[in-house]
């Protein structure tokens, strides 16, 4: 195994750890959201009092549940993948299609990361708050957009590098490292 393959494997391993932590952040927010809803509903029906801003903050929390997990879905193979055509093609054509899909992913997600960062930055500089009974900074929900899209973009870039290397036989990195088998490789 060459130096470039070793470096790539180390980067993939680090990416897997980062995406696992981001997914855990999403799971943590999911549990917090569940506890908030249960507490709010219980308080409303048993005591006639709800938690101020609970309903409004649920939309903000939903972004923190879904966006950190985007990259985890890619690296574990739980993303949507249509193989109707590619499974019938020779291996080299499938590898070329993977390169094309990764390139499109890098471009599209790179654009989304850029615009999400601008969206967050504008909200932060304006000091936007949600229209709620309590002041909840709106930019807190927007902060996760560039984090999620940025991580997703970097993984697509890494996937593109590996796919191009595999296509041109510049070292062979198994696709299982990107979750084609549906499991995280430690």
Which key terms come to mind for this protein?
elongated, 70% helix, 186 residues, mainly alpha, 5 helices
What is the topology?
Layout: H1 3-47, H2 54-66, H3 70-76, H4 91-126, H5 139-167
Helical segment tally?
A: 5
Shape: elongated
| H/E topology pattern | HHHHH
**Mean pLDDT figure:** 85
Q: Which structural class best describes the helix and strand composition?
A: mainly alpha
Report how far apart the termini are. Answer: 18 Å
Helical amount among residues, as a percent range?
A: 55-70%
Strand content: under 5%
Radius of gyration, whole Å? 20 Å
Summarize the structure in words.
This protein is mostly helical and 186 residues long. The protein contains 5 helices and no strands. The C terminus is likely disordered.
Q: What's the quick description here?
A:
The chain is 70% helix and 0% strand. By secondary structure, the protein is mostly helical.
């Amino acid at each position: 195994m060459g130096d470039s393959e070793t470096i790539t494997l180390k980067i993939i391993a680090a990416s897997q750890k980062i995406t696992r932590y981001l997914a855990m952040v999403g799971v943590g927010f999911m549990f917090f959201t569940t506890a908030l809803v249960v507490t709010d509903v219980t308080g409303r029906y048993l005591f006639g009092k709800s938690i101020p801003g609970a309903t409004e903050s649920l939309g903000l929390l939903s972004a923190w549940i879904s966006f950190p997990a985007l990259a985890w879905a890619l690296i574990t193979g739980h993303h949507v993948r249509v193989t109707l055509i590619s499974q019938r093609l020779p291996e080299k054509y499938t590898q070329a299609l993977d390169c094309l899909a990764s390139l499109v992913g890098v471009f599209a997600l790179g654009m989304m990361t850029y615009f999400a960062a601008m969206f967050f930055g504008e909200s932060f500089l304006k000091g936007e708050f949600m229209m709620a009974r309590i002041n909840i900074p709106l930019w807190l929900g927007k902060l996760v957009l560039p984090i999620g899209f940025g991580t997703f973009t970097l993984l697509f870039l890494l996937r593109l590098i590996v796919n191009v290397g595999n296509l041109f036989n510049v070292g062979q990195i198994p696709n299982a490292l990107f979750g084609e088998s549906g499991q995280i490789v430690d």
